[in-house]
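Possible regression after last week's pipeline update?

I re-ran a chain I had predicted before the update to compare outputs. Posting the input and the new output here so someone can diff against the archived version. Not blocking, just want to make sure nothing changed silently.
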Amino acid sequence: MSLKKMSIDQKTLADKKLTRNTLAKEIIAQSIYMKEKGLTPGHTGNISARYEDGFLITPTGVPYNQLKPDQIVHIVSLEENCDEQKLWDQSGFRPSSEWQFHRAAYQANKSIKALVHTHSNYATILACAGKEIPPFHYMIAAAGADVIPLVPYAIFGSKQLSDGVKISMTGGKACLLAHHGQLAGEGTLAKAMELAEIVEDLAHQYWALLQLGDVKLLSKSEMKAVHQKFKTYGQQNI
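New output (post-update):
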């Protein structure tokens, strides 16, 4: 059984007041799953989840299979005017260098409770080619919009990159980062990881279609119907 399937059964992170330790363990489980599934190489990528007035995020430079719950960093606020020296415990582990664009995504979209950032292969290929993912397949709607947009390139950890993420995640739940990778957000850690996998799969399919030449796209009205259908998709009265 995969680590993701063994993860905590959550309705949404907002519905359950999880302890910091429990949520940190879930972040670690998903991080290991991400690595084992080949969604990101080496120490790249990062994962976070909303917690209290801020969020918990993986630390920089620690291999996922060596992570301990007390190494998951608590960013205590989403406010940009908060003194950075007070945003996390300076005596402990430093957060991922990408913590600022996680904050930007949470600011942009209140429905997002967890984020997964990967350098997955095909999403990164498209991002390096300067391509967004258009509505060639109805599953684009899983990312909350008609396209999976491309954030213009800016160096990792920069305010410019965070600003681009904020714009792109305002209307959706996933984006590509030019010359970098992808970012996916959802209501739980497990669902955010699933969306990251869907984005990678769509990127692979779109890359293959580009090799064939002309790509047929769904219209705005067709995508509108899909978004409406998705409101009840997969629901069961159990």
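Follow-up from reviewer: compared with the archived run. The chain has six helices and seven strands. Marking as no regression found.
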